[in-house]
């Protein structure tokens, strides 16, 4: 079994000066790279809605049920932190704390640093690649192309730019969540104790975060002063979080499959174009409203165009002229409730995979 978890501990070589010339070059470079990145993410999502079978007969990797980037805090050394990524937060924390013989990272194995607690987890990435990009950017916030040069906390300062305090760690996380590269992926944030929640709210560096960002606060499961927790880690919190996330995803995926069996085996049409829906047609893949009691169904392409149209109208009202490749969210024409595109794609991909098995 291949270990999907990240052990990346790289360090950048580029140090950016404060000169106006390099600032202009940085801005041009970032604009170019952000455009390429958005195109890459768009291609990743679209490819997951096409045929799930490669030419060699192997299935393409689907959208992972859970993949995220985490922040650890040493219990014994309060000012020490570690950023990593994993699809299994509980197992990963056990590796960092030495409870599992394989895995972990060199920095977290140092004498006197264990045990570690996972205090923050950014999740909902559409692929391992996008999670690794977020992880690397957070580790190297002083020079990452994902944060504009003039918005970095300490631009170009290698030893302090990534942030040594919890406030700077949180601020850099927020900067990435609001960056052009990541803000439309529908990412969510889980916070695992009251202290990190208060720091998030305090927002010392006054970093803006998208109003639609979903914050999952877990402060009532385990007490920071609980001796049994300090000896190991906040494993119960992480297990409950993972179970809750699985339940939320599975309820929607089961709904998609149920609608297929109840309706789509018979004639059924798209609520937008009013044409028949063919589930196995990769261009016109079935998509289902994410609202629990709504049974509206669409061609995925029709819904994408509709959501982009809605976003364009809102942008026009706000004098924004940005053109997007994929939508972020939109309202269902049946129930008028907001649907997030990342969940729509997850349901469409899941249904295709089940039909292709």
Automatic annotation (TrEMBL):
InterPro entries, per the entry: GIY-YIG_endonuc, GIY-YIG_endonuc_sf, Slx1, SLX1_C, SLX1_endonuclease, Znf_RING/FYVE/PHD
Cofactor(s) needed by this chain: a divalent metal cation
Gene Ontology terms: cellular component: Slx1-Slx4 complex
Polar residues compositional bias, start-end: 1-18, 41-55
Molecular-function annotations in GO: 5'-flap endonuclease activity; crossover junction DNA endonuclease activity
Low complexity: compositionally biased ranges: 19-40
Cross-referenced Gene3D superfamilies: GIY-YIG endonuclease, Zinc/RING finger domain, C3HC4 (zinc finger)
Compartments it resides in: Nucleus
Residue numbers spanned by region Disordered: 1-59
Biological process terms in GO annotation: double-strand break repair via homologous recombination
Entry keywords, A to Z: DNA damage, DNA recombination, DNA repair, Endonuclease, Hydrolase, Nuclease, Nucleus
CDD domains: GIY-YIG_SLX1
Ranges where the GIY-YIG domain occurs: 65-148
Family: Belongs to the SLX1 family.
Function description: Catalytic subunit of the SLX1-SLX4 structure-specific endonuclease that resolves DNA secondary structures generated during DNA repair and recombination. Has endonuclease activity towards branched DNA substrates, introducing single-strand cuts in duplex DNA close to junctions with ss-DNA.
Subunit structure: Forms a heterodimer with SLX4.
Protein name as it appears in the record: Endonuclease
Species of provenance: Pichia kluyveri
């Amino acid at each position: 079994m291949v270990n999907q978890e990240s052990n990346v501990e790289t360090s950048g070589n580029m140090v950016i000066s404060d000169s106006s010339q390099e600032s202009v070059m940085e801005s041009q470079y970032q604009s170019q790279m952000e455009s390429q990145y958005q195109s890459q993410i768009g291609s990743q999502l679209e490819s997951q809605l096409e045929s799930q079978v490669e030419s060699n007969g192997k299935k393409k990797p689907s959208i992972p049920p859970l993949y995220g980037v985490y922040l650890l805090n040493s219990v014994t050394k309060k000012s020490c932190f570690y950023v990593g990524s994993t699809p299994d937060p509980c197992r990963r924390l056990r590796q960092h704390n030495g409870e599992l013989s394989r895995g972990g990272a060199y920095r977290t194995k140092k004498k006197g640093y264990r045990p570690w607690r996972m205090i923050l987890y950014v999740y909902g990435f559409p692929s391992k690649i996008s999670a690794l990009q977020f992880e690397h950017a957070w580790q190297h916030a002083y020079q990452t192309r994902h944060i504009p040069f003039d918005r970095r906390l300490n631009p170009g300062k290698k030893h302090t730019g990534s942030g040594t305090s919890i406030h700077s760690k949180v601020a850099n996380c927020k900067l990435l969540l609001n960056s052009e590269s990541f803000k439309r992926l529908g990412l969510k944030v889980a916070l695992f104790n009251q202290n990190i929640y208060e720091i998030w709210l305090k927002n010392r560096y006054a970093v803006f975060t998208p109003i639609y960002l979903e914050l999952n606060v877990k402060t009532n499961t385990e007490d920071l002063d609980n001796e049994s927790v300090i000896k190991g880690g906040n494993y119960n919190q992480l297990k409950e979080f993972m179970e809750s996330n699985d339940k939320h995803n599975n309820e929607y995926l089961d709904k998609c499959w149920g609608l297929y069996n109840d309706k789509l085996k018979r004639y059924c049409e798209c609520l937008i174009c009013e044409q028949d829906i063919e589930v196995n047609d990769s261009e016109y893949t079935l998509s289902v409203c994410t609202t629990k009691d709504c049974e509206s169904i669409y061609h995925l392409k029709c819904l994408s165009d509709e959501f982009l149209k809605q976003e364009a109208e809102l942008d026009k009202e706000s004098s924004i002229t940005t053109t997007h490749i994929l939508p972020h969210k939109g309202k269902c024409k049946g129930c008028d409730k907001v649907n997030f595109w990342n969940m729509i794609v997850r349901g469409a991909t899941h249904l295709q995979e089940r039909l292709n098995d």
